Amino acid sequence: MLEGDAVDSRSQAVSQKYTNGLRFTVTILAGTLAVVGSRLVGYPSAGALGCIMTSFVAGTGWKRRLDYDTNEVGAYLDLLWKFLKPVSFSLIGKEVNFDVLEGSMVLYGTITLLVAVGFRLVFSYFSTLGSDLNWKEKAYVTLSGFPKATVQAALGPAALDLARSLNATDELERAQTVLIVTVVAIILTAPLGALLMVKLAPKWLKKDPIGEGGVV
After folding, report:
1. Is 207 helix (H, G, I), strand (E, B) or coil?
2. Considering the entire predicted model, what is its pTM?
3. Residues 51 and 104 in one domain
4. I want to staple 142 with a disulfide (CB 3.0 to 4.6 A). Which of 125, 207, 209, 211 is the partner?
5. Is 81 part of a structural domain of the chain?
6. Does 182 lie in the same domain as 144?
């Protein structure tokens, strides 16, 4: 009887590994298809939205499965992103032309960034109103709207790529300005925001005992 249980357990483990691998592969392929397909049909900006919708629909569907607790797709994607993140930021750095870098450009870009982040923090706080979160948890959710990096890294070079594809030489300088402001946003917000979130999470967030509400 014990041997049969052990065999069943090993069989379930192997089946779950196969399921996780299949889900991971389908998620990656669906995101790739959304990006490439949107470019082919002439709507390149829809690719990012397609990736977001893919993750949302997949995560919502998997939560309804009995094996959701053993779902490791998130861990696989996180591991993949750890390798791709330096590549993404390196490609952005390669595109930055420091010959057109001016002090006024950095100054106005920084001011624009601070104003935008200010609005983002305000609306992040408004999004927590009416919830059961305490003030520390609301402050942490608000703070999570501060770091800016991943989306900027993906969309920052878009204007420059578009200007080059259209041979719009008169717009290249503006596209470079967009890219430089993107880099400024990453440098000023990503490290500080990540540091604050890591340091404040143990102090501002708490975890309820299992079966009593989960993570607060």
Report:
1. strand
2. 0.57
3. no
4. 125
5. no
6. yes
User: For 163-174, what is each residue's pLDDT tens digit?
Assistant: 777 777 777 778
Residue 188 lies inside a defined structural domain of this protein: yes
- What backbone torsions phi and psi does residue 207 show, to the nearest 5 degrees? -120, 120
Report the range out of 89-98, 150-159, 199-208 with the highest average pLDDT: 199-208
Is the pLDDT reported for residue 7 higher than 50? no
The Cα 120–Cα 125 span in angstroms is: 9
The structural domain count of the chain equals: 2
Count of alpha carbons within 13 angstroms of residue 150, beta-carbon side: 9
Q: Which residue, among 215, 187, 191, has the nearest Cα to 201 in the 3D structure?
A: 215
pLDDT in tens, 124-140: 899 888 888 888 888 98
Please answer whether residues 74 and 86 qualify as being in contact, where contact means their C-beta atoms are separated by less than 8 angstroms: no
Per the domain annotation, does 90 fall within a domain?
Answer: no
- Same domain as 198, residue 118: yes
- For the stretch 152-161, contacts whose Cβ atoms lie closer than 8 Å and that sit 24 or more positions apart, written own/partner, are 152/182, 152/185, 152/186, 153/85, 153/88, 153/89, 153/92, 153/182, 153/186, 154/48, 154/88, 155/48, 155/182, 156/92, 156/182, 156/183, 157/91, 157/92, 157/95, 157/182, 158/44, 160/95
Among the listed residues 144, 159, 156, the one whose alpha carbon sits nearest the alpha carbon of residue 190:
144
